[in-house]
Fold this protein.
Amino acid sequence: MKRILTVQDISCLGKCSITIALPVISALGVECVILPTAVLSNHTLFKSFTVKDLTDQIEPICEKWQDEGVEFDAIYTGYLGSIEQIDMMKDLFRKFGGGEDKLIFVDPVMADRGKLYPAFDMAYARKNTELCSCADMIVPNITEACIMTDTEYREEYDEAYIKELLSKVVNLGARISVLTGISLSEGKTGIMGYDKKKDELYVYQNDKIGAMFHGTGDLFSSTAIGEMMHGKDWKDAMRIAADYTAHTIKVTMNDPKKPWYGVNFEETIPALVAME
Ligand code: PXL
């Protein structure tokens, strides 16, 4: 069985980061080891939140794992709490992420819809950009890609704008760069990615469902990495993750009692498992 280490916060309420990664990756039949960066009462898009920072736990936890000689097939980082934690990730990649067959997957979670998340500033964003340069694969959304490449964020854009943005993101250094949440025609949404080593461009679009929910980026990334651990190539993994995320948004919208803060992924996990 493959083993992933995911490093993100625990938002106790809110259906994001670890509370999505752990169930989704486990359901895909992949062991998911967690390294929580902080415990929050709820994610930061609620009107207020508590945070208990766990930075001082990262090194001692990693030391124990080193003593045990544990290895990971992939390291997946998501929402991190601070600049200091980003620096620690570089060390963690060196300790546990070396070797040709290991995948370092960075989702530079920090912004959406043209804005940084409430807990972050530009100094954090610059550090996050550095972390992307240490990864094998990165999956920024348009806002994150714009921030990382000093590009003007646009609500309305064409394919040329996305291609240009992707080429700038590719220059950050990861082998595979994927832009998420891109719409190349009316009523469509999906991804555009590029594998530098294979010189391979991949575009996938499915129907856009007219609603945005929190946590869908985490759902996409967790599904994609879980699928890649099953030996799916990155393009198939992206397509499955995009389809599953869209399906989950659709199902959530049909629920009159849906919570405002996240998607009903619990309801769609059986469909994901059946897609295997
Ligand atoms: O889904 C991204 C995410 C993860 N963790 C926390 C967040 C957010 C988005 O706002 O606030 C704590």
Observations:
- DSSP finds nine helices and eleven strands in the chain.
